[in-house]
Design brief:
205 residues; 40% helix; alpha/beta; 23% strand; 6-stranded parallel β-sheet; 10 strands; 7 helices
Length: 205
């Protein structure tokens, strides 16, 4: 299916923050550059709403993160991390994110879901069939649901250019342009003396 993107298109972006955070952490051991993700996903269209769904912890370490999102025009909706008597923890925004997308859909032409969670497949189908919205999915493809990628009208795979969507470089992540620069320089230094010896032998003959 061909996807249409033009400047007058009204766009809503819904960010499954936990899903994207853990994908980047597990794949590349890095944090996500949310500003770049939103910019490329929007593609110069009219942004109506951009909402990030975030889980807060008792330590409150997310404050700086919230402020950073607000500065780049992303709204944040927070929910406390639930800790049960047995020690189990629950952090889930799926229902809240889906309800918001359905409520705002009548005012949008395109909806961008920043997630790889297959639980959103029924939401994608509903928005396409009943709301007539173009639904686009943005996430790291390696950790995304295959069915979710398949049914979306458009899919942006952040794995195609990961360093563009991550904060900082990482030697453990496996996506450096030159993974063994020091080894290559050592190999070059070992080759040079051999060349000089050959030249000396030729000149003595």
């Amino acid at each position: 299916m061909s996807v249409i993107k033009h400047k007058e298109q009204r766009v809503g972006i819904f960010i499954d923050t936990q899903n994207l955070y853990h994908s980047a952490k597990n794949l590349y051991h890095q944090r996500v550059n949310f500003q770049q993700v939103v910019k490329d996903a929007l593609a110069d269209r009219r942004l109506i709403r951009a909402i990030a769904y975030v889980i807060t912890t008792e330590a409150g370490d997310e404050k700086n993160f919230f402020e950073a999102l607000t500065k780049i025009g992303i709204e944040t909706k927070t929910k406390d991390l639930q800790i049960f008597a047995g020690g189990n923890k629950k952090a889930d925004w799926d229902v809240g994110m889906a309800i918001d997308a359905v409520k705002i859909a009548p005012k949008l032409d395109a909806i961008i879901l920043v997630t790889g969670d297959g639980d959103f497949i029924p939401l994608v189908e509903y928005l396409q069939i009943h709301e007539g919205c173009q639904v686009e999915v943005v996430t790291f493809g390696k950790s995304a649901s295959g069915k979710l990628k398949e049914i979306a009208d458009d899919f942006i795979d952040l794995d195609q250019n990961p360093h563009h969507y991550l904060l900082g470089n990482n030697r453990q992540g496996g996506y450096q342009n030159n993974p063994r620069p020091h080894q290559e320089r050592k190999e070059n230094r070992r080759e040079q003396p051999k060349t000089r010896r050959i030249f000396r032998q030729k000149s003595s003959e």
